[in-house]
Task: structure prediction
Amino acid sequence: MATRAERPDSPVYRSLRHPRPQRTVSAIWTKQRPPTRAAGEFLRIVEGWNGEN
Result:
């Protein structure tokens, strides 16, 4: 999270340059308990990622 620097020794956000770090997102659930609506929405959003987010 980027914030305005209040003091000279406060942390500063810096965007990472190429190559940007990449991660694999996984989601699992048991057969007896299907995902909730919130989990389903999360999966829908994650499936829409194209690697640039």
